[in-house]
Amino acid sequence: MNPHNVVNLLIDTVKVNLDVHLPSRVTSQEREVAQYLFETLKSFENATKFNYQEETTLDLHMSDYISSDEDTNTTDDNGVDEWTNEEGEKITHHLNQYSLEYMKAVVDFADEKDDYGKRRHTWKSIHHRFKSLPSQTYVSLFRSYLQKHGTKQQKCRSIDKVIYDKFVNAREQALPIHDLDLQRWALKTAKEVKLNDFHASHGWLINFKRRHGIVSRRITNMVTRHDIENSHVVQKSKQDFLVQYYRLLSDYNPSEIINTDQSGVEKEVHSSRTLSAIGMKKIYGIVSSKNASTHSYTIQPSISLDGKVVGPVLLCLQEVNGRMGETVKKKLFKPSNVVITCSSSGKLTSSLVAYWRDKCLIPSIGKKCLLLSDSWAGQKDEKLYDKKNCNGKEVFRLEIPKRTTSELQPLDCFYNRQIKNFIKKIYNRVALDQIPIHLYERNNIIKLVSLMHDQLSAPVFQLMVKYSWFSAGLLKQNPAPFSTVNEICFPSIVSHEQCELQACVESVFITCAHCSKKLCFQHFFISYHYHG
């Protein structure tokens, strides 16, 4: 087949059947059409036979938008999207960069008509308003997409957004959500957008959760619907507290700003996880006393903004009738860094707050301090902090609002977890090595609390204590990097080494935070390795 003959015949046919106007400036669109025709003719050069078929396009009403003096070259984008026309033919266009909202705006603007039913806007005015459109053909493509509710990729993005919005809304109401709920929502949404081949498969679910950082978590706090509905009140109280705190900050040195909090500790702490063989249906743990594992005592530590542990720790033991007998008192282990008291429940009462003030707080501060404590009713009485009750010292108490302690109280945000971790390490070692000692006994509890308080008072943990304030939003500069209790006292790298004292052959239990000696349980706990 000779392409030259085809061109000559085409020219003659055009002259006869079309109104040929005078020559005009060649537009980029005309160059594009000519290039397509050339490539088609070139393919005929070595052909011995050919077939042709008619194609109906979706380029609707485009003559209204065509301006001969406008550059209508299309441009390439990185993204490629597919859609299907009315004949079921797939056509590729670069439309990933356009949202459905943008497409609707373009089509609505293009379809505006005047009082006589004529279109208001030419392609030139459309392109002037929507400069990212590379060609007037995109207007008809947008219209087709909107009629078909978007491309498959756009529908998938729409499903993703709807499901994530549902997830966020449900979690804001503290509602439990599981994998099946996400898949159920996705299938319902796919049906609404007419994406019939969407199955919300396991692979889709994994990708959706990874994309949005969603994981399964154990519920740690239960709240009522009333709490959720009043969350804005809680947030306002949080902001008001922070404003007041930073206003007062300039009036005190960091060492004069103190946070104190009560923390309950089980008499026998046990680990909730263990290594076990695959396939075991029941995983048992051992305790010396079930009664001890359900009863607790209370400790009340204090820390300052400059990263130090303040004064002795208050220890409230559980005693029958809330008092100790004289024989018990005589045999009581009395370390210098623990103030010991008791109650029938093992918890503090309002009268014991005054005892803590007199024995722990007042001897440990200068002329004044800013005391941060939570909204527990037992410590709210303003008379507790009058000058006459504080040996002439100024104690200004700033109350941390209700239901904000997990975010605003430094001890809750980080430090108390270090305490619990230290105590658990000791209980686990006693249980695993079957050391013949009952940690739930009175004097062992006192010794344990004393050693814990002594170790965490080491200068090496000063930055860690300051981080507790930073994590609560009460210190603006992040003190990181810092070392935690696990990194300093219980590094795994030395767990197989031998104790450093007296040619001991026992394995290392702890590295002392003060002197860095590696000690076995006997030399640390039984022999009471205390620095003071």
Q: Which characteristics define this entry?
A:
532 residues, Arc Repressor Mutant, subunit A, 4 domains, four-stranded mixed beta sheet, 19 helices, 41% helix, elongated
What does this structure look like?
Strand 1 and strand 2 (90-93) form a beta hairpin. 41% of the residues lie in helices and 10% in strands. The N and C termini lie far apart (104 Å). It is elongated and about 125 Å long. It is an alpha/beta fold and 532 residues long. It folds into four domains: 3-24 and 36-44, no CATH class; 62-147, no CATH class; 152-212, Arc Repressor Mutant, subunit A, CATH 1.10.10.60; 233-271 and 286-490, Ribonuclease H-like superfamily/Ribonuclease H (Nucleotidyltransferase, domain 5). It has a four-stranded mixed sheet with strand order 6-3-9-10, with helices on one face. The model is unreliable at 53-93 (pLDDT under 50). The longest helix has 23 residues, at 410-432.
Return residue spans where pLDDT drops below 50 for at least 5 consecutive residues: 53-93
For the record, give the distance between the C-alpha atoms at the N and C termini, rounded to a whole number: 104 Å
The CATH superfamily of the largest domain is: Ribonuclease H-like superfamily/Ribonuclease H
The rounded Rg comes to 38 Å
Strands across the major sheet, in which order? 6-3-9-10
What would you call the structural class?
alpha/beta
Which descriptor suits the 3D outline? Answer: elongated
The helicity comes to 40-55%
Architecture of the largest domain, according to CATH?
2-Layer Sandwich
| Total helical segments | 19
Strand content: 5-15%
The total beta strand count reads 12
